[in-house]
Description:
By secondary structure, the chain is mainly alpha-helical.
Amino acid sequence: MRRSRKDQREATRQRLLDAAFACLVELGYGGASTAAIAKWAGVSSGALFNQFPTKDDLLVATVDDLFSKLVADLNARLVVSVAEAGRPVAAVVDVLWEGLRSPTIQALFELTTAARTRPALRAHLATVAPAHLAAMVAFSRHLFPDAAGSPHFDGTVGVVLTSLQGTASSWFAFGEIYDVENTKAELVRAVEWLVDDASRRRGGE
């Protein structure tokens, strides 16, 4: 069955987004030119610019595509890990750490670095990143309802994510030069204390 023009256009758009992701991972932002992305996708530069009039348009769309896939993947794995874990906090930290070492995050780090000199990309990330954090906090509240009542819960989730993101950024740049396991253990210890403390307080009500 022959695809409609709309379906063909959407398929080309997704090929370009997938190619942008692959180029960011394999070549870095410096090598992810529009020409390289078009070649990777197997389309002409004209076809690329027909979909995305500027490189910033392509990068912004890539950010949205990557964040959407990242959130869906992490949420699915977190639900399974917490349900099966004897130490759910440790399981969550492990899932987040593995997710933050993924090619998806690597590509997002490349785009975050590039945003310093690309105002349109920086402005878009300034709206997307807080929304992503808010979604992760809301999902964490669902996973740990007892601890969610603590006034420190949201801030703790933010600290965990920021700490792991910083460690992952260093890991991408330099490899295993930091004591990652110790960092993870300290984060788990702090969050488990918060969860236990919130449960004790709730039990004393």
